[in-house]
Design brief:
78 residues, four-stranded antiparallel sheet, Alpha-Beta Plaits, 4 strands, 2 helices, alpha+beta
């Protein structure tokens, strides 16, 4: 799933968030976009992402995590 996180509080360094995500899902990808905020692609749901981010030192509220529509074409059968 892809999520955009627009946290109202400062986030921990991206490397800390990335380490937490990779421990949860080794195939996850995270980056920071100045317009969209924190972008996360991982096999996780929104509630678990909030919990993971807060466990990594963030203070993210559930309403600050927006799941994005799927862009999967089905071509890889995944």
């Amino acid at each position: 799933m892809e999520f955009h996180v627009r946290a109202s509080q400062p986030l921990p360094p991206l490397a800390i968030i990335e380490d937490a995500l990779l421990a949860f899902d080794p195939a996850s990808v995270v980056d920071l976009d100045l317009v969209q905020g924190l972008r996360v692609n991982a096999a996780i749901d929104a509630a678990a992402l909030v919990e993971l981010l807060n466990g990594a030192g963030a203070r993210v509220l559930p309403g600050e995590v927006e799941q994005q529509p799927s862009v999967c074409c089905g071509g890889c059968s995944g």
